[in-house]
Amino acid sequence: GMTVRREAIPRQHQLRRFKGELSVLFISILFILLSAHLPLATIAAVGWSGVMTVLLLMWVVRPLNVLISTWGTDLTWRERLFTMWICPRGVVAISISSFIAILLESGSDELVGARLGPEDGQALMALVFLTIAITVVVQGLTAEPIARLLGVSAKSSRYVVVVGANALGSTLP
User: Cα(14)–Cα(18) distance, rounded to whole angstroms?
Assistant: First the structure.
């Protein structure tokens, strides 16, 4: 491995870009598949208490997590504030919650002993999905204005990915 790594890899930049594009594609597919598995009634059952939990995560838990994680780094307070606002959305969390839901549906002895059932796994998945949906919409739409306000925005190229070959997707350049 060390010998191969010392050699120049032809088109390394293109390979890294392709890997990044594949990662985005697979994460997008993961979210679509997991959300398709989750009934709307389950999300509705979480209700306002679920929304309040998401707000608590957005305004208290995530900022504290970022503050503790970045303690002693050379990040400025503006960069920390921005990171607190846009920190990761939860691909790992939704993957783990779906795994726990599968374990609960299968009747895992450890979880059944804790008096947890399949409905608890579905509620956990609904809460995680609600967290991701709300944070992606709210924080995703406000990331650029907040970055400009804090003075941490970077100039970069923007790309749009069109998924699907419907009439709209086919007419876009």
Answer: 6
| 138, 59 Cβ separation under 8 angstroms | no
Q: CB burial class (10 A; 0-12, 13-18, 19+) of residue 6?
A: exposed
Six token digits for residue 57:
């995560």
Q: What's at 97, amino acid-wise?
A: S
Cα–Cα distance measured from residue 84 to residue 150, given in angstroms and rounded to the nearest whole number: 12
Cα separation, 45 vs 123, whole angstroms: 8
Give the side-chain half-sphere CA count within 13 A for 114.
Answer: 12
Number of Cβ atoms within 10 Å of the Cβ of 52:
10
Q: Is the pTM of this model over 0.90?
A: no
pLDDT in tens, 45-95: 888 998 999 899 889 988 998 899 889 899 899 999 998 888 766 667 777
- Write the DSSP symbol of residue 115: T
Distance CA 97, CA 121 (A): 7
